[in-house]
Design a protein that fits this description.
A hairpin with a 6-residue loop joins strand 6 (114-126) and strand 7 (133-142). Helices cover 47% and strands 20% of the residues. It has helices at residues 3-19, 56-62, 82-97, 144-173, 179-191, 205-229, 232-238, 241-255, 257-260, 267-283, 292-336, 350-367, 387-403, 440-444, 469-479, and strands at 21-26, 29-34, 41-46, 51-54, 102-111, 114-126, 133-142, 346-349, 371-376, 382-385, 415-423, 426-435, 483-490, 509-518. With 521 residues, it is α+β, with helices and mostly antiparallel strands. Helix 4 runs antiparallel to helix 5 (179-191) and helix 12 (350-367) packs parallel to helix 13 (387-403). The protein has a five-stranded antiparallel beta sheet, sandwiched between helices. It has a five-stranded mixed beta sheet with strand order 9-11-12-14-13, covered by helices on one side.
């Protein structure tokens, strides 16, 4: 294009822009607003990229002079290379061939040496005679913060996708551990730092709820501040009334979420959803009409709720994976025990047997914040049998004890006590925990030893299980000439509740499982 043609094209585009008006509904009827007054970045360039027009919003975004001619500056300067702009223009052409305009294209600009992600919408400007493209007009907005959020979400989603793939692979291959899955979850936990909870295990739901109070209060205050600082007139200009009503409703929910959601376990996901909805509404507000600090503060505080509630879900998942790890291993060993070649029996140190079983439980106990306490009252002792089977039997008993333990009081960890005693010619490995009850009838009728049976109180708090632990442990004990005994009694010696009273089994019980094995003398 010759200089004369450029000048003519620029004049034509300027005239069109100067005469352009946008209709906006107002109280007194339709209001016509010039393109300079539009609260969105608007620009126009010649075909070669030279700026013809930039309103104040666009100039501020691109850090151009707020006044004066900028025709010596080209939009090409903001692209890292010419091919990137050519790609955008090809997309504009393709969109117009389909009777549309290019909308919401996100690209990276270099502004004053810094990367700035922008979202543009663009169409061509054609000459009045011949319809030849002489330039382009479009809108431009800063998308940097949202882009960073998208990248963070993408990275987290990749971690989750990797986790899902790992779970499928582990199950398909029927492996003995979900070790790699746990590592992926650990990586997710690292991304969600800082962690206000125990590093790898959740506290009680009451303590989790306590950790949510402060972030919810802060976010509610930030949203309320945003609502109060914006005048009614400005509100009408930037968002529909329904959006403001929704934001007010979310603010009330954040401030009074305990009254709205009475079940503690339901509060984290509901708070997360409400915070996401609030951010979506705030993202639709044009920041140049409202102090950016208000918008930034509100979104930051809402994201903190999303971070903490997501962290809760990751920790819960990690806890479940650790449960499943041992459960699957024990289940596989139980199913295949009759198909394996007979293993040689050997003389086994009781101390070594117990230590080996405990080692397998370390991660699970740590995740559940359970302290394992061991007391050996007899010193060195031996049993005779198959190490793999006896190790699994002790592990099943320990796993159940850890899984069904409760926290006694706030600030104290739950415990499982392991005692080694001698009674006659037998060794007693006694595992005791403080927590979920087993009913008298389930013990007397031996329901707890039936394959696949799970105690009627065992599924509280989302505990996972297969119902084979005690079945397998007793079969192993009996194959080795021993047995298993189970008792369960109220933890409070002077409890006034009787078995017929409602709530009798809701109180903490001390459950004792004794694995009896003949001593090898």
């Amino acid at each position: 294009m010759t200089e004369l043609a450029k000048t003519a094209a620029a004049e034509l585009i300027r005239n069109k822009l100067e005469s352009a008006r946008i209709e906006i509904p107002g109280r007194g009827g339709i209001i016509l607003v010039g393109i300079h007054s539009i609260p969105v970045g608007v620009y126009a360039v010649l075909e070669d990229g030279a700026f013809i027009f930039c309103n104040e919003e666009a100039r501020m975004l691109l850090q151009l002079p707020l006044e004066g001619d900028i025709k010596s500056i080209s939009i090409q300067n903001f692209y890292s290379n010419e091919d990137e702009r050519n790609g955008i223009l090809q997309k504009v052409k393709k969109a117009e061939q389909q009777g549309e305009i290019l909308r919401g294209e996100v690209i990276c600009f270099r502004v004053q040496g810094q990367d700035k992600w922008v979202k543009i919408s663009c169409r061509s400007i054609r000459s009045e005679q011949g319809g030849k493209t002489i330039g382009y007009i479009g809108s431009i907005e800063d998308f940097t913060e949202e882009h960073k959020e998208q990248i963070a979400r993408k990275e987290l989603q990749e971690k989750v996708d990797s986790l899902i793939f790992d779970i499928g692979s582990v199950m398909h291959a029927n492996t003995s551990t979900l070790f790699m899955v746990t590592r992926v979850l650990d990586s997710c936990l690292d991304m969600l730092e800082p962690n206000p909870f125990h590093q790898t295990g959740l506290q009680s739901w009451s303590e989790v709820d306590k950790q949510l109070e402060r972030p919810a209060e802060i976010a509610a205050r930030s949203v309320k501040k945003l609502l109060e600082k914006i005048s009614s007139e400005i509100k009408k200009q930037v968002l529909p009334e329904k959006s403001w009503q929704d934001l007010e409703g979310i603010q009330d929910f954040l401030q009074n979420y305990k009254e709205h959601i009475t079940i503690k376990e339901h509060r984290p996901p509901t708070l997360r959803d409400a915070s996401r909805d609030a951010i979506k509404i705030i993202n639709r507000i044009q920041p140049h009409r409202i102090p950016k600090e208000l918008l930034r503060e509100a979104k930051k505080d809402l994201r903190e709720i999303i971070r903490i509630t997501t962290l809760i879900e990751v920790v819960k998942t990690r806890d479940a994976v650790i449960q499943v790890d041992y459960t699957l291993k024990a289940f596989r060993d139980f199913v295949t025990s009759n198909q394996r070649e007979a293993e040689t029996k050997e003389t086994i140190s009781v101390e070594k047997l117990l230590e080996s079983a405990r080692t397998q439980m370390d991660d699970f106990a740590h995740a559940r914040r359970v302290v394992l306490k061991k007391n050996n009252h007899i010193g060195t002792a031996f049993v005779y049998g198959v190490m793999r089977e006896l190790e699994r039997a002790v592990g099943n008993v320990l796993h159940n004890a850890i899984k069904y333990s409760w926290q006694r009081s706030r600030g104290t960890q739950p415990w499982v006590r392991i005692d080694i005693n001698r009674s006659g010619k037998n060794i007693h490995i006694i595992v005791e925990n403080w927590g979920v009850a087993i009913s008298r009838r389930e013990i007397e009728d031996e329901h707890i030893f039936k394959l696949g049976y799970r105690g009627r109180l065992s599924t509280d708090r989302g505990r996972l299980g297969t119902g084979i632990g005690l079945t397998d442990a007793r079969e192993v004990a009996r194959r080795h000439g021993g047995d298993i005994e189970v008792t369960s009694r109220p933890a409070h010696k002077y409890s006034t509740l009787s078995e017929a009273d409602e709530g009798y089994y809701d109180q903490p019980f001390i459950t004792t499982v004794t694995l009896i094995l003949p001593e090898q003398l």
